[in-house]
Amino acid sequence: MDFELPESHQALQKMVRDFCEKNVKPHAREWDRSGTFPREVVRQLGELGIMGMQIPEEFGGAGLDTLAVAVVVEEIARYDGSLALTVASHNGLGTSHLRVFGPKHLKDRFLPKLASGEYLGAWGLTEPGSGSDAAGMKTTAVRKGDRWVLNGAKMFITQGSVGDVFVVLAVTTKEKKQKGITAFCLTRGMPGFSQRAIHGKLGMRSSDTAELVMENLEVADDHRIGEVDSGFIDTMKILDKGRITIGALAVGLGRGALEESVRYSRERTAFGQPIGDFQALRWMMADMKTELDAARLLVWRSARLADAGKPYTVEASMAKLFASEAATRACNKAVQFHGGYGYTNEFPVERYLRDAKLCEIGEGTSEIQRTVIAREIYRR
Ligand SMILES: Cc1cc2nc3c(=O)[nH]c(=O)nc-3n(C[C@H](O)[C@H](O)[C@H](O)COP(=O)(O)OP(=O)(O)OC[C@H]3O[C@@H](n4cnc5c(N)ncnc54)[C@H](O)[C@@H]3O)c2cc1C
Question: Which of 1, 110, 118, 343 is the most exposed place for a label (fewest CB within 10 A)?
């Protein structure tokens, strides 16, 4: 077992760190405050290959492995959780669904632009009335000759209002329940397709979230992704990988919170000594560091399994569950560490805490991860 990152991944990590120090760190607070989606920075990340990390080189992508994606997302999250969520969801959800299960003509048409960052990808599974119970979706797709007619709505969709290419799931054979769901590729501006940005989120405020509405939206059968009625099974595979990335995002936020706390503990004094000299705070740091390292190892293990072509569903759930809850604990401690200043946006730790909470909810809540893990224990 090798716990060191390969040199190629270390170089990638450094490139992303340098980029974020210069282009993200100085702006993250303002983007969060104003809820600004940093489109230009996302475009620049596209130029660095970060928006097409797992897209094969033949389609203009970087052809990187899952471990690389985890390293990049962790590094960005250290500076800005929202931007990390943009990168994670664009690479891991809609774009991946198209890359893995889409027909060649759609890959030829969209993957190069998604890889360059010219286009943004979004993925619509959750609905106003169903999230954890994803198979309980109400959006329908009814066949009409060589076309399908979609009706319904999707909720909380990342890149929903800024996206260009959307993969959405719809019920095609109601009586077959989760074995009667199909994926379709939609594009911005299609007649009957509208987006409504959602504001007022607790965190991840400079990531774009929207509701998608489909009203008698007609889409050609050649925009179907995967076999008819097999969309839900494909979706579970996409989510498995996505959970590794959300775990990495959580580790990055926790790490950012720890680093800020260390810095602050050296500067702030109380009772005539730096606060970092108090054992109570040192123990807090020790807990943060230990839990975040453990979380990273779980994330890297699941990434390695994915890259080796081995099963990793339960390992990805464990990584996401532990990393997201460890991150929330670490960020909460970081706010405590900063005292009253931690409660203001003068320091980034309150933002990290708000952002970290999303990791316990998005791409399957902690309760759903525990259900997946427990199911596997009994199955084995
Ligand atoms: C910022 C943000 C971005 C998102 N991005 C996307 C996206 O890009 N695409 C997309 O499709 N979705 C996205 N989502 C949706 C997200 O995946 C769902 O919110 C999440 O899966 C939970 O679903 P829900 O909100 O419907 O909650 P519910 O499923 O209604 O859950 C409510 C509560 O009940 C619990 N619960 C439900 N079922 C069970 C059970 N069987 N056992 C125990 N407890 C249970 C849940 O854990 C939770 O605590 C996003 C959400 C947010 C907030």
Answer: 1
